[in-house]
């Protein structure tokens, strides 16, 4: 393996999430002090943190598997042949190539993050409503 191919379908959403979280953190005191929209910003922050963890973890796993697989390419030509093909190399290649969970984590991350952040928003709004009416 000559180089490492970056999984842009995982890195791009991770960078976007970091950018949005950075904006939320910079404007945090202003955003979270607004009583009417506090739970909106809390749930949005939870959404992007979870999404970053899911997609970033998948990108990290992909790159680390490529680095481990690169150690098996003894002659550095980018192909595995002869004594370079071992059971360990075949297992790593299989892990790298045949993982649809990691490949589609940018989609499943959206679903999972939404399934967590929407109830946080709803429960937070109900809590505020009960707190305000007591």
Characterise the protein shown here:
The model has no long low-confidence stretch (mean pLDDT 87). This protein has one domain. The protein is an all-alpha fold and 134 residues long. It has six helices and no strands.
Give the helices and strands, then pairings:
Blueprint: H1 8-26, H2 28-33, H3 38-70, H4 87-97, H5 100-103, H6 105-133
List keywords for this structure.
134 residues, mainly alpha, elongated
Can you summarize this structure?
The chain has 134 residues and is mainly alpha-helical. It has helices at residues 8-26, 28-33, 38-70, 87-97, 100-103, 105-133.
Q: How many domains, in number, for the residues?
A: 1
Mean pLDDT: 87
N-to-C order of helices and strands: HHHHHH
Please estimate the helix content: over 70%
